[in-house]
Amino acid sequence: MSGARTDIEAVEAANTALYEAVERGDVDALSELWLDDEISVVHPGWPVLTGRGEVLRSYALIMANTEYIQFFLTDVEISVLGDTALVSCTENILSGGPAEEDGSAGPLVGGLVVATNVFRRTEDGDWKVWSHHGSPVLVESEDDEEDGTSPDDGDIEM
């Protein structure tokens, strides 16, 4: 690890390592990237999970039930203030289920999630994940565009 790397570069590397560990399904590597205590995660559609046990179990469950996942991060913004760093990004996710009976790849599904990752610098100088929060992005379908409705149209009364 080069001493010339800036905090922003180090946080970016830690953020990238987080997504790469999930892509590989490597629970041990993922575990090394998180702080030892006081951590939390909100996966899209899930309640907040707190503590190492709950957080790491949630990732193990996701990885065990996802045959293939790849993240393409866009709109990455990193800010560092002292020993805390904030990363916001859009996770462009490509995932798939089990392979078909003939051995070909299973169906792939794309999705968008806006994520906020909070990192803290440890006494060793490493940046570790303190919190991850992912929120799904609702995307209009072609059907919505054709009938003039949008995901926001609904039974809302004012």
From TrEMBL:
Signal peptide: none annotated. It holds the Pfam family SnoaL_3. InterPro entries: NTF2-like_dom_sf (IPR032710), SnoaL-like (IPR037401). SUPFAM superfamilies: NTF2-like. Residues 11-137 form the SnoaL-like domain. Coiled coil: none annotated. Residues 133-158 are annotated as: Disordered. Residues 140-158 have a biased composition (Acidic residues). This is Nuclear transport factor 2 family protein. It comes from Streptomyces albiaxialis.
